[in-house]
Amino acid sequence: MKDKTIIKGRGAQVNVQNKFLEHSEEVRDDFLEYCRLEGEEADPNKTTYIEVTSKSIVNKVNSPDVGMSYSMNPYQGCEHGCIYCYARNSHEYWGYSAGLDFERKILIKKDAPELLEKKLQSKSWKAQTIVLSGNTDCYQPAEQRYEITRRCLEVFLKYKHPVGIITKNALILRDLDILKKLAKDNLVSVSISITSLSETTRRTLEPRTATIKRRFKTVRELTDNGIPVNVMMAPVIPGVNSHEILLLAKVAAENGALSLGFIVVRLNGAIGQIFTDWIRKTMPDKADKVLHQIEACHGGALNDSEFGIRMKGKGKIAEQLHSMMRIAKQKYFSDKEFPKTNHTLYEAQKQLLKQPKNGQMRLF
Known about the structure:
This is DNA repair photolyase. InterPro entries: Elp3/MiaA/NifB-like_rSAM, MJ0683-like, rSAM, rSAM_sf. The chain is 35% helix and 13% strand. By secondary structure, the chain is an alpha/beta fold. The protein has a single domain, classed as Aldolase class I (TIM Barrel, Alpha-Beta Barrel), CATH 3.20.20. Strand 7, helix 6 (176-184) and strand 8 form a beta-alpha-beta unit.
């Protein structure tokens, strides 16, 4: 039976201790009783947007098994609230908790487009695909207000520079006009994260994300407009969504996806505590089974930090998941090919933009 004290609309149900901070906060029973007597909310459960400035925005990705070389994140923290999100741990570097703070205290990097342009103007920079959302979703709800991602895409278009996008939000369709222009020169690719076909599972795992129906519609619409789409089933959680691999692959292919990827869930850092608390409250009848199966994929722990293995898992359960994914790809994606982004236009475009607008150049 579900815990009746679950915080609605959130993934994490607790604020765990930040390992970098000496002091911690505790909600005491006497405080809760005081709030009850005064008719006040002990926890208003509101999202706060905090504007910050950054020295740089493009990050070198040193992990050899992530699948990207450079990333940028217009936002830190993510209101989507996905319970399994590996990015939660990075919120601790800013002095916040990886739990509820990650979903409710969103840092806004308003100068991201200017910092990106400065990077692309650099003499030493050579075109390499920069991935939006290597850490947190660039189309999370804050983007509706701030439009930082859209402004960054305008910079990529201006410099004819390749960009990758990872998201689970249908808001990406708002920027279809820019994406189509990028796609004409093969400068953009999109990965849509879809973890389940079940709305019940989606609402539990990812409480503030676009519905499954809207995500597949997004895959279809992007594909119809010439934008290559990869579907990421990330993560696969044994006992929660692992049984959906084949059917999800079928629906993804039917909606135009050109490729399918997945990772095995890993609960690194504070996420192990956050996820364990969450599943015992939301799925108490299967909590032990799921946790034990995750441990079986990581040598008896909830996480494995070894490069090359940490996101693939090992052991019999992980092998079964990989076998199922191989079958899915062979059955539904064997005739599809995902194109590489174009890195050849940027250098000439950068030099063109640097030329002074005098003489005949004023005509252009």
